[in-house]
Amino acid sequence: MSAEARSARAVRAVAVLAILAASLSGMREADAQTGPLKLGVLTDMSSLYADNGGPGSVVAAQMAIEDFGGAVLGRKIELVSGDHQNKADVGGATARRWIDNEAVEVILDVPNSAVALAVQGITRDRKKLFLATGAATSRLTGEECSPTGIHWTYDTYALSQATTKAVSKLGVKSWYFLTADYAFGAQLEADSRAVIAAQGGSVVGAVKHPINTSDFSSFLLQAQSSQADAIALADAGGDFINAVKQASEFGVTGKQKLVGLLVFIADIHSLGLSSAQGLILSSAFYWDLNDETRAWSKRFIERTQKVPTMIHAGTYGAVMHYLKAVQSVGTVDGPTVAGRMRELPVNDFMTKNGRIRPDGRLVRDMYLFRVKSPEESKYKFDYYKYLATIPGDEAFKPQETGGCPLLSGK
Predict the structure, then answer these.
(1) DSSP-based three-state secondary structure for 86
(2) Cβ within 8 Å of residue 285, ≥6 positions away
(3) What is the C-alpha separation between 334 and 145, in angstroms, rounded?
(4) How many contiguous H segments (helices) and E segments (strands) does the chain have?
(5) Which pLDDT value is given to residue 30?
(6) Beta-ladder partners of 258
(7) Domain 157-283 is of which CATH architecture?
(8) What is the pLDDT of residues 255-291, one digit of tens each?
(9) CATH class of 35-154+288-364
(10) Would you kindly state where each structural domain of the chain is located, as residue ranges?
(11) What's the mean pLDDT in 106-131?
């Protein structure tokens, strides 16, 4: 065979391979448009945040899918789930695989701010939806905001506004922080410091602890020796539970007030009312707030035998709102659906007259509660006494001061 013939054959082979590749790509794209509509719950399945999100978030998302009817735009709705292990690299790799290889259109939950920030960047680049129902950091609607990102349930700013203000009004002037050493803890402490300063208080010290800490003794001794009026726990889940238990053992809760800045009802259940009574906390949801919250929570409890947290309720609401937006615009295109979600009001058992701002923040009322004593509790999961409602516009940071580049067209 001549050199020219070999060259021609090679060119034809390359052309055939290119055609096959294009055909396979087209088949994958077509399958993504006509196959199941996939939603992914990326959460902590087995570690310190598992009770607050975890398997319960998967159940809540599935409930929403079933209540919607199981299909939209003629496509079956399919739910996948994964464990991010509280590692940004693991969560990021899962998000990429879901989007690039498994045609997942929206990612939900992500109760770890470091992981959530990684997922926000990935979904922003790939123009897919990220509904952060479990993450806390206000950076998700600040400098790290995204046109396809929506921060659904709560954030560090709202938590600090409600709880820190309420405790300050009780006469607390000096504070000491025990802070989880990652993105969430740092932002929660920063947001709370600003509120304390505005209330005329002072921060006399702070110490950072690793995530998923079992021994808080050295940190608590430092806090105790500070003689601060209040010890603020800028952590969550298992870390919060361990800190409260050990604070009681060390007698910290005598003259000093222990303040949880992010407290879930699952934490209170784990601690028991004897240990948790008197704590003041803020939340976007309480199962026993009204008839609507009780009706939904009853269904959740029947499936899980556990009390729903605000992450679980928020995940349900986010899935329903997403599916309504998809149905409304007739496409699953990320930016288009995200835009429609911002246009539609949010009204469900958890949120009344909520609205999603251009920066991606869902503005909703927050609530202030006090944990009941064992004597006050009359039935299962009867843990909170309602104190006040904080209107959404007061609870959440004004978007003009958040630093979101979307607002300036950057």
Answers:
(1) coil
(2) 153, 293, 308, 309, 310, 313, 314, 350, 367
(3) 15
(4) 15, 15
(5) 42
(6) 231
(7) 3-Layer(aba) Sandwich (3.40)
(8) 899 999 999 999 999 999 999 999 999 999 999 999 9
(9) alpha beta
(10) 35-154+288-364, 157-283
(11) 98
